[in-house]
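PEBP family protein, Pseudoalteromonas rubra. Tokens?
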Amino acid sequence: LYQYDPKVDTKALGQLDNCGGHAGRGDDYHYHAAPTCMIAAMQNQGDDAILGWGYDGYPLYGHNNPDGTVIEEGTLDLCHGQTDSEYGYRYHTSDQAPYVFQCLMGEVNTQILPRVAPLSSDNPQMRANLTPPQGGVSNLQHTILADGTRSMTYSHQGTQYYVNYTPISGQENCYRFEQKTVSNGGIVETGTLCR
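Tokens:
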């Protein structure tokens, strides 16, 4: 059951980008709060817009009910949802923890859930300690170049850090990494990572 713990509140700890998400240990991007950038890009930004679907088949709506009315305090259950006349049940986002749903109300077939395989490395120390910076980061920027190179740069306590990776030509799902992160003490590390 969900119990709020401020020590793992990714939003309060400043671990989320301005879109409400971050990349996890499985090298997947996911949300811990309302997907603000996605909402801004949607044609239907109204309260009746479905932002996504849980693996149990129930929809995720924004901060209000689909008819535009405010969700009264105490209405949302433990999974951050409520009954719905159209779908039977629905989840919501909010400005207060837990921000998005924390459990699933319906049934889930775990045999068909998509999984992202973590990257394996020729330098096992390179990603050994992925502890996020305490107090968050500033000046977070993500760029993608024409050759597929991706770069994330950020500042923490006045020092610049980065993670760069470039696809290796002829080796599907393999990348050349170079990083200087808070987690590794600012040491520049390089390696090849493949799925």
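Helices lie at 36-41.
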